[in-house]
Amino acid sequence: xxxxxxxxxxxxxAGTAGxxxxxxxxxxxxAQVGVGVNVAxxxxxxxxxxxxxxVSNGFQLNLIIAISYSLLLFIFRQQIIGFFSIxxxxxxxxxxxxxxxxxxxxxxHFLNPVFSTILNSTGNSITPFxxxxxxxxxxxxxxxxxxxxxxxxxxxxxxxxxxxxxxxxFFVTIIFLIIGKKYNTIYSHVKLxxxxxxxxxxxxxxxxxxxxxxxxxxxxIAMVITKILASFGPxxxxxxxxxxxxxxxxxxxxxxxxxxxxxFIGQNFGAGKVKRIKDGYxxxxxxxxxxxxxxxxxxxxxxxxxxxxxxxxxxVAIKEGIKYLKILGxxxxxMTIEIGTTGAFNGLGKTLLPTVNGTVLNGLxxxxxxxxxxxxxxxSGVWWAISLSSILKGAxxxxxxxxxxxxxxxxxxx
Length: 414
Prior knowledge:
The protein is mostly helical. The chain contains 16 helices and no strands.
């Protein structure tokens, strides 16, 4: 919203560089899901020593990945942004500046989801909610101060937005550490400098790699889509960036419920309570379906109001943004079902099926976007490619879980 008041170009630049935060979020999932599933199942069995072992090794793995990725982004920032072939030099330059700052602080971005997952997996979702909310509020306050300047603070523009992002994540990390020490939480027993247990790390990676592959490939596919969008100019990139942020009303909420479903199913799977697994999934999907229907109505009927908040002075971007939200609005219900069902599969330790489903259908977005955008649909063809793939992903994964569960129940009853 604040960058939209600078220029549409600033939004496009931040959106372009932001894809590498998204890919970073995929890398986080290696430790996040791998640790979360094992912690939930071991916690359900009452094996606290096993829980501590997975937590320590998970953080060791996560830090190695984070530092390596940080160095990669910083050293090759020019080449990374160059991939998009952005025609406007100022947009490309701003994107490079944004990425350089993000790269220097991305380690905190890696740590916080793992702190949250560990607490969620032990049934404590309140503490991560409070801590992450503090970080979000800090980001909301710092953003305009750093972007536009205030008192002795200079006007930093897009650099200010990047600084606000990494500082807010730093605050969250510090709060998690303070809470861990004060309340003796499970992650306060982390032994970062002990010799890693290769077997434990392999188990984390085995479970974490499929969801990483799914989200990572999804982000790479989105980058290719953005490269296609770049041929339509910076407004198209800005619309996708803003539109996806508005759309996060759905997927961020669904991710929260997905984490809850995963933890609930993981604990009950570990405890051998089969009926509670099914009940938890059914009730979780009912909640998520309701959220999906609600956000569909919000995006379709509130599209103009929502998009005007972000770029009030750009009628071209608003017009295209309305199309984006109405087309993507049709897929929100199916998106929530897919995300919730992925959480269920993750809780059971079966991460491969949602990965294959998501990867194949996300991959089809590229040829679909190319074909549809070259027809009379133009830029809207790209939005239709994204929306239709989301609808198919949700419908197919729901059916796959139903088939898997029937076989699972038959096996348990035998």
